[in-house]
Structure to design on (218 residues):
């Protein structure tokens, strides 16, 4: 059971250039269409305790030099809820960015609506939704890019965050998979978008499935 990220979970995936220090990647699933995986955070994820934020990374493939990722906990609020001072959220996001080593100006965030909508992110989208609600990419629950230096972000509470990485074509995707999106095959649609737009082969795509609500909560 994943306690700390139950109410606020953020997954971010960042495609890096070749001349960078080694950073964490995502867990390996070649048959993600069919796999049903059970694992514990302690066994499969690396816990990183920063002075301002607690976050996690997948242990497997953590030595890849070409991508960086993180899964945050719910220690601090980073969502622009109506009842929260936006200045507090901006400060918390900047602190998280510093903790994980990815500039907040590089983040790209969508307005998630529990859909199966997949959007391709380009260089002109860098920073959208990073420090405000208004500039978010509208009505999407999966983001895909092959551009270096872009951090794709998804937010989830009980839903499942999925991070995809094509290590051959150097394409990344971040997916918010709630039950509606899962029923509409949002992960499959994201892989199809990666194949259609960038020529990705599903066998080359690695998937990190983040913590989510479990049967113990019902």
């Amino acid at each position: 059971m994943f306690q700390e990220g139950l109410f606020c979970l953020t997954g971010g995936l960042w495609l890096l250039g070749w001349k960078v220090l080694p950073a964490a990647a995502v867990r390996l699933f070649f048959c993600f269409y069919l796999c049903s995986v059970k694992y514990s955070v302690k066994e499969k994820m690396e816990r990183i305790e920063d002075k301002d934020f607690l976050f996690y990374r997948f242990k497997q493939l953590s030595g890849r030099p070409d991508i960086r990722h993180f899964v945050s906990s719910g220690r601090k609020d980073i969502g622009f809820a109506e009842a929260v001072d936006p200045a507090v959220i901006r400060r918390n996001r900047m602190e998280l960015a510093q903790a994980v080593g990815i500039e907040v100006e590089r983040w790209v965030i969508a307005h998630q609506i529990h859909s199966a909508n997949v959007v391709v992110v380009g260089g002109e989208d860098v920073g959208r939704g990073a420090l405000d609600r208004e500039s978010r990419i509208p009505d999407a629950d999966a983001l895909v890019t092959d551009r270096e230096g872009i951090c794709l972000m998804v937010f989830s509470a009980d839903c499942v965050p999925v991070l995809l990485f094509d290590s051959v074509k150097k394409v990344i995707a971040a997916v918010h998979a709630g039950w509606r999106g899962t029923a509409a095959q949002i992960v499959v649609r994201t892989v199809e978008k990666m194949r259609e737009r960038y020529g990705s082969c599903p066998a080359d795509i690695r998937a990190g499935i983040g913590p989510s609500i479990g049967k113990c909560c019902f």
Remarks:
- The chain has a mean pLDDT of 79.
